[in-house]
Design brief:
Elements: E1 2-9, H1 15-21, H2 25-37, E2 41-49, E3 52-59, H3 62-77, H4 81-84, E4 89-92, H5 94-104, H6 116-130, H7 136-155, H8 165-174, H9 179-183, E5 187-191, H10 195-207, E6 211-216, H11 219-232, E7 238-243, H12 247-251, E8 256-259, H13 270-278, H14 285-288, H15 304-308, E9 318-319, E10 325-326, E11 358-362, E12 365-369, E13 386-390, E14 407-410, H16 412-419, H17 427-476, H18 482-512, H19 518-526, H20 531-554
Parallel strand pairs: 5-6, 5-8, 6-7, 8-13, 13-14
Antiparallel strand pairs: 1-3, 1-4, 2-3, 9-10, 11-12
Length: about 550
Amino acid sequence: MSLLVVGLSHRSAPVSVLERASLSADAQIKLAQDVLTAEPAAEAAVLATCNRIELYADVDKFHAGVAELSTLLARHSGVGLEELTPYLYVHYEDRAVHHLFSVACGLDSMVVGEGQILGQIKDALARGQEQHTAGRLINDLFQQALRVGKRAHSETGIDRAGQSLVSFGLEQLADGADVTEWAADKRALVIGAGSMSSLAATTLARLGVRELVIANRTLDRAERLAASLAEAGTGTTAVRAVPMSAVTDELTRASAVVSCTGATGLVLTADAVADALAVPEGASAVLAGAAVAEGGKRAPDGSLVARLAETAGRDGRVRDRGGRTAAPAEREPADGGCPVGLDDTHTGTAGDPVQHGVWVENAGSSVPAVRQPVRTAETARGTVRMALLDLAMPRDIDHAVHRVPGARLVDIETLAEASADAPMAADVDQVRALVAAEVAAFGAAQRAARITPTVVALRTMAADVVAGEMARLDGRLIGLDDKQRGEIRQTVHRVVDKLLHAPTVRVKQLASEPGGAGYADALRTLFDLDPETVASVSRADVNDRDTDAENRGRS
């Protein structure tokens, strides 16, 4: 079996393709499970981040493996194979190992040197262990990748070359100003409470924003994050948690917004941002009630329905990002009347993400409120009342926010462009040398491990021969006492061990070198070893190592 990687990242594909091909946590699990049912693969793991989607598998056939993995990746991502293929890359054997080690060290990240990828690799391994899709090779590979990544950050200066995606994104929002000074008077809204959103909230609190609000679909999780930040001590920052239904109101007070959720569609539309900016600073969306209904007239009750009524067209049909329509019956309000799309499970027709509005109660019926994208002129580089950072894939915030006056949006696409010009530190070369050495060591260890079952089977056979001869001798030399028999047995064992020592050590050395796979076959042929005996040793070794890996993962 051999290691194969098929994937796409910000280096091979445009953000628009990555966005469409993104996989939910459930889709990642299903993809890995489907790989195991495919003929060429024995184990698999999926590494999916905001800027990469990679499928790792242990396959017995290269070409069949590439074809099967590419097909499965396209099927689960929802992007047609013909469209996806030009953006896919393939790595095999040592090149696949080199790729993952480079990823773990942050060399392949959008922001070179960022360490957040280590947590994502750890999560991918944990999923593989929990779902039993990761076997010996995947466990060894990902465990070693984590160790190599930690070495890179502790033994080199790679941290000076990069930073987290959150920090880099906030620097882009500051637009050249000192980030700490920029953040000092900000009222920040963080949407989501996952790993990336938690990092964003922690970073904003450390920078000393005036107020930090955390909104999440599951309020308990947002409250736990807010409590942990409060316990850690956030200085002058006031931290609180709110449900997703409060996002619309909080948006009117926010001067900085960071969003990274698992939603399959937009969390904030351009018009939602424009409406929030239209509310006078310091006024609540609910209290202001300053909505303008169709025709520019204020709604009589000044309610959220009136303020956020988004034109779905006179036919009442909901429009997705591409302007396509879906019948209102195909949309359901999120739990508790919170904004549609803030529910991570919501999608539109045929799986297309729906441009989100707000579901509210009006005269006893739920009214879908979805508006068409804002079509204002390009925002001048003047006063920015609201700075928004979108770290989600697919995007949480409508790209049309770029055209909303008073708003500045930085998203994954913006970060990709900015990171292309980021300076590279000299320490990167040191990390590359570390990766190369680790790849060579990992390859040698894997090749040597492949011959171990054959060597164990050979020694087992030799022990059986000694036992048989000692039994025969006992029958012929009846007068020997136990001490004499022990001396004879020990002597015979020493002779056999000395005869086998040099050949087995040498064959392990030879097998660890490139092209050394044939030595195991030669050893089996020369000593006429039973293939089933060798296979049984291999199975026992795999079971022991899998158990060890699972225990390490739980630890």
